[in-house]
Amino acid sequence: MNEERETESRVFMVLHAGCGLLCVLASLALGWRPGIELHWGWARKPLVAIGLISLLFGILIRRTHAARITSRVCIVWSSLLIALAIGEAAFRIARYDFRRQEVRWRSCPPYYRQPMLPSGKVFFRRSGPEQWSGPVIKTYLQFAGCDPTPYASEEPITVKYDRFGFRNETELHDWDVAIAGDSFTELGHLPYDQLFTTMLGRRFNLRVLNLGVGNTGPLTQLSYLEDYARAPSLKHVVIVFFEGNDIGDLNREYMALLDFEATGKRPVRQFRKQTSMLRALGEQIRRIRYPVVPAGPPVDAVFMGRTGVVQVTLGLLPPTQAELSKLTRDALQRFVHDYAEFAHKTRVRPWLVYMPCKASVLSGQIQPTEQASDSVRTFKSTDLPALVAELCAKRGIRFVDLTPSLREETHRSGELLFNALYDTHLNARGSAFVAEELAKQLDFAADSSVPEPRGD
Fold first, then answer.
1. Which H or E run contains 257?
2. Angle at the Cα of 191 (from 190 to 193), degrees rounded to 5?
3. pLDDT tens for residues 260-310?
4. pLDDT at residue 413 above 80?
5. With the CA atoms of 138, 140, 141 and 144 taken in that order, what torsion angle do they form, in degrees rounded to the nearest 10?
6. Mean pLDDT, range 372-397, rounded to an integer
7. Which of 1, 213, 232, 385 has its CA 20 to 30 A from that of 272?
8. 323-349: per-residue pLDDT in tens?
9. What is the DSSP string of 346-404?
10. Is residue 115 a contact partner of residue 165, using CB atoms and an 8 Å limit?
11. Which of 225, 158, 164, 228 is nearest to 193 (CA)?
């Protein structure tokens, strides 16, 4: 009898010791990855405490009835820890994506997606062909967890992208003009007929290729011209330079290009799967405990328009010349030089259209709100257009600044040419006005012979 009790006691001891060891190992595992520790780091000390208590129970409790009770608790607790470990390992091995990133990414309007397919040396483009239908801005605000109320009445549209991921609804095999740019050229929230590139083509009776892609900078846009714009009838190329974020995009692209030229390695963009079951469980618990309330629109200023007071979001502000670093100036010079060289080699006329941000157009016509940042309150028109114009003039690139005309039209009409809240791109009226203004200033009927590039 004593021998049986001694054997049973050793079994109880092993169960308690095993449970204690599993608790300690689980505590260490919760600190293995930052994503897991973020949600479960609080459980590390309790796990160590439970493990130590289990060991003490195994040493101190010798009475059979009490030991059986604590042993059953150890078995249940150990089974739970082992099941969680097996589940975590199984989902990681299977590479199951709890966030379903690619599925969610495709549910977002193409206009707001980051280009993912490699293009050129270090650049990226969108995939195609693709067709997407729905209210673009409203859908994106819901996707981003923002209050979509300002766009509750937005009309759904259907946007189509060609096989290279550009907004060309009709497949062109030849064209006269190619226009590259960022989201201000793509204008993925407007129907195709309301794009200024489409309206320009109708105005001049020319075939215009739209190479506008959001989340890109000037070097990417030049790469699009080099790779996708060449055609027998091509006579004019245009890059629409947006002052709001093209400087930042240019810096990143230039550094990536320098790194590629030094190492031969190009950047990679791919979906990073979230394969941790524990992290997914922690995120779900956090969403239940702290539900996200949709954020209201940032109101930086009010515009006294023809119809009364209009609240506006200003968004990105352009830098001044004094704020540009040497790297940025080098990047600008590299871009303008390469653009002029491309135009010269392909015997086309190069243009650069300077697109101002909303703050530059509304400067002097708005009143900042209390929640506006200091940079908004002190913002004045930048001298950046003068620098870009000077660089273009040195290289024989024709320069068109839309700032004065957009500002004057806003003052004359008393109507916004940009979306008011959240989104800071041109609205339908603004796109139509840009088309009219470019029709006046882009001399597509002129001789397209290209002057020799001039030195710095």
1. helix 246-263
2. 120
3. 999 999 999 888 888 889 888 888 888 887 777 777 788 999 998 888 899
4. yes
5. 160
6. 92
7. 213
8. 999 999 999 999 999 999 999 999 999
9. HT-EEEEEEEPPHHHHHTTSEEE-TT--HHHHT----SHHHHHHHHHHHTT-EEEE-HH
10. yes
11. 158
CA separation for the pair 385, 408 (Å, rounded): 17
Q: Domain-by-domain residue ranges, the chain?
A: 2-94, 115-264+296-441
Q: How many angstroms separate the CA atoms of 88 and 398, rounded?
A: 60
**What tokens does 371 get?**
């929640």
Terminal Cα-to-Cα distance of the chain (whole angstroms):
101
Which own/partner pairs from 75-82 qualify as long-range (CB within 8 Å, at least 24 positions apart)? 75/15, 75/19, 77/19, 77/22, 77/23, 77/50, 78/15, 78/18, 78/19, 78/22, 81/22, 81/23, 81/26, 82/22
Least confident residue range of 6-20, 89-103, 317-331, 363-377: 6-20
**159: its two tokens:** 């946007």
User: What is the overall mean pLDDT for the chain?
Assistant: 89
Q: Give the largest Cα separation in the chain, rounded.
A: 111
Contacts of 326 (CB under 8 A, 6+ apart): none
